[in-house]
Amino acid sequence: MAPDGNDTKDLRAMFADDPEGADLEVFGRKVHADRRGFLRGAGLAAMSAAVGMTIPFHRNIPQGFIPAAMAQDNGLMGKDGLTLLNDRPLNAETPPELLDDAITPTSRHFIRNNGIEPENTSAEGWTLTVDGFVDNPMELSIADLRDQFEVHTAALTLECGGNGRAFFDPPASGNQWTYGAVACAEWTGVRLKDVLEKAGVQSNVIYTAHYGADGHLSGDASKLPISRGVPIEKAMTDNILIAFEMNGAPLHPSNGAPLRLVVPGWPGSCSQKWLKRIELRDVVHDGPKMTGTAYRVPGHPVAAGDEVPEDDFQIIERMPVKSLVTFPANGASVGMATDVRGHAWSGDRTIDKLEISIDFGSTWQSASLDAPVNDGAWQNWRANVSFPQSGYYEVWARAVDSAGVSQPFAIDWNPKGYLNNSMHRVGLRVS
Ligand SMILES: Nc1nc2c(c(=O)[nH]1)N[C@H]1C(S)=C(S)[C@@H](COP(=O)(O)O)O[C@H]1N2
Ligand SMILES: [Mo]
Predict the structure, then answer these.
(1) Bridge partners of 333?
(2) Phi/psi at 427 (nearest 5 deg)?
(3) Scanning 7, 202, 304, 379, which has its CA 20 to 30 A from the CA of 72?
(4) What structural domains and CATH numbers belong to the chain?
(5) pLDDT tens digits, 104-143
């Protein structure tokens, strides 16, 4: 049966009776069960967030119906061109050439889940608890956050600590991220700092602890998939948001709807999604993925493949200086001259210089580099390069940050495969 106007009645009835059977008939395939779960809980707001815009005729949509744009995409509803690395937990990255925009569209923001996304991601009735060593413990709805605090919008760079892990040799276990576990979306919310100030941070507090609503992979409701935190001095900086909008719309369900932290420049794991609670502690947080070797690197250089005692590992704080070439795509064919462009960032710092080489690093030329649009945003850069003759070339990019630190050519190896900030190389066929 075709889902055209004349069949509206039947379509509605079909979805009411048997949504899965209806998917099969309408889309010719079963829609990913997780996707259906979100929609059941979240409704129109999640659907709009997922397709990336409002749905003018939403009143005509049958109950339980999944828009075709969301049904099509390999279970990654509302995501465009992402590469699925794992579907349980869901992990998907963005090819660098799809990160060309100054502000990453929601449809191209990577997804990194450690557990199972909550079914209910509706803003309705969602609360955030702020407790621990505070003078005034609080429970705030999203409306309370909007009403009681100044609302800010900022472009904020989020990168997974494991981005680039795929290139470690010997390999490191975990998601084999290549380049695309990074994004810079525009987030709207309130400052973490303002909320903590209102709660009244007690003098013994040294660390935050963040808790989300996602479930552990084992299905054991008493276990959390991940709960991380940051030193209180970091938490009190200006560019950290408790966000309820992403690119001017409700958050995408997989990116933490309806509420999340965004801690730019630090490992993405600090930015708790589906945020339910922030606790202030008088000890370093010890939640899942805070201890052992998770999101930690040796405190000293190690040779590739070395065994490192657990005591030598330190918690990763700021992310290192890094850049991406987002145009042209790796493997593209171009003429004798081409525009080249991308982004550069360095956690808690700015980028001073972006250089590119087309001769395997012998000579370098400066690209033109924009200032960050705000504190916490990546910086956009561009150049025009001419090639002396046709053939195969590589464009290499290296950023230098405000502390004078540059990107390495080769990976600085560590056992868990974090913080790979080696230069991005893009191969081009020039003729
Ligand atoms: N509740 C919760 N928050 C989370 C995670 C998670 O699994 N559960 N993953 C973290 C990790 S490791 C990263 S890199 C970022 C990824 O954010 P994104 O999926 O919106 O890109 O979310 C962080 N916040
Ligand atoms: Mo991450």
Answers:
(1) 429
(2) -85, 135
(3) 7
(4) 5-75 (no CATH), 127-315 (3.90.420.10), 322-430 (2.60.40.650)
(5) 999 999 999 999 999 999 999 999 999 999 999 999 999 9
